[in-house]
Amino acid sequence: MEKKMKKLNTHHQNAPRFVFNWTLLLFSASVSAISITTTAPPQPFDYADALAKSLLYFESQRSGRLPYNQRVTWRDHSGLTDGLEQGVDLVGGYYDAGDHVKFGLPMAFTVTMLSWGIIQFHDEIAIAGELEQTLEAIKWGTDYFIKEHTSPNVLWAEVGDGDTDHYCWQRPEDMTTSRQAYKIDQNNPGSDLAGETAAAMAAASIAFKKTNPHYSHLLLHHAQELFEFGDKYRGKYDGSVAVAKSYYASVIGYMDELLWAAVWLFEATDKEEYLNYVVDNGGCFGGIGWAISEFSWDVKYAGLLDKDQHKQHAHILKQYRSKAEYYLCSCLNKNNDTDDNVDRSPGGLLYVRQWNNMQYVTTAAFLLTIYSDFLRDSNQNLHCPSGTVDHEESLSFAKSQVDYILGSNPMNMSYLVGYGSKYPTRVHHRGASIMSYRE
Ligand SMILES: *[C@@H]1O[C@H](CO)[C@@H](O)[C@H](O)[C@H]1NC(C)=O
Ligand SMILES: *[C@@H]1O[C@H](CO)[C@@H](O)[C@H](O)[C@H]1NC(C)=O
């Protein structure tokens, strides 16, 4: 299985990816807890500023009718007839990367991760003054997921398609390319997409529980229905929505998303049935039998971390955890066989694959940070095959990856657009590369 996962490195497509910079969310306030043990002068990275810039990115990706308080003012309303041909209202959501397709799977994963960020680092985000913006970014996604889910067993999966979208370099406000919408239903299943969207809505329901209980409830209702739909009608969504296949193919399949959805539903509801699902399907769904060095919109297994709270299932849940630990050790370069570790660039950046590598770096930094907190709070160490790692080492490696992105790299350049004094200025992004709509 492990070798098979490595092979994945070659399959990936040439489309830009949406999932990008949410991980910066968590570094807002945790810096004070880090003791930097290097002789070089510490880089004065402003994580709160990086967090703010990451959230602005989500505004630049907005599709639909923009609100009065839109801060990215070179954008305007767009995609206002999305779904019209099919008789559904699919206005809203997020565009993918620099293009104008709305791809359900990576969009949902992004919203799951934003929600996880706020669940785990609520206070830090609040101290950075970005709580409201983060919730807005989540809600822009979940409002759209509610629209996509038009009946219990129907979920609209995509608007537009990558091929025709690539014909024209236009602002989203001027789009003339196809806005055909595609769905999954009981005859055309998509357990991965239904599972990820369920996970996103369940996680978001936790994020909104205090501030917007009615909305939280609504999200949970959709999440439960979607999970049932995905579980009952099994299949990969790219078998049903062929246009997704050359852009966001579900290479690993849907079992990780079903487990991931069940984990989030358990978190959101405390209902035993969801935990039992995770325990009962651990073996046959590959939850406890894999060794993977990637956590991404396609591959969720490493996110199935357990915190050891459920004594009666301790045996199975421990196996889940040991798999997550394999992933963490591989990021930390602490598995014995080099093939079992994630490659690093000469400058020390985790390197998973050629296209949009930074998404794997940010997901790794996210999990390493969460795990560091877990180790600290439970007074444990992570025992990797070639060495033991304590919570400080896990966090400082995560920090090194984020610092690389923000400028601590051989180019002395920030890879977060708008952050710092030197950053890429000719990114693959249509809206940003054409004169403002307002000029
Ligand atoms: C990994 O290497 C260490 C030290 O070289 C050795 O003690 C350990 O037994 C090895 N572990 C495995 C699982 O091979
Ligand atoms: C990056 O900064 C370091 C330290 O100031 C300097 O030695 C190096 O030449 C810089 N590299 C580039 C590509 O500017």
Automatic annotation (TrEMBL):
Record has Transferase as a keyword: no
An annotated GO BP: cellulose catabolic process
Keyword check for Membrane: no
Signal sequence bounds: 1-33
Domain Glycoside hydrolase family: 47-436
Keywords noted in UniProt: Carbohydrate metabolism, Cellulose degradation, Glycosidase, Hydrolase, Polysaccharide degradation, Signal
Residue spans crossing the bilayer: none
Protein name: Endoglucanase
Organism: Hibiscus syriacus (Rose of Sharon)
Family: Belongs to the glycosyl hydrolase 9 (cellulase E) family.
Gene3D superfamilies recorded: 1.50.10.10
PROSITE patterns linked: GH9_2
Catalytic class of the enzyme: hydrolase
Recorded coiled-coil stretches: none
Active site residues of this protein: 428
Enzyme Commission number, as recorded: 3.2.1.4
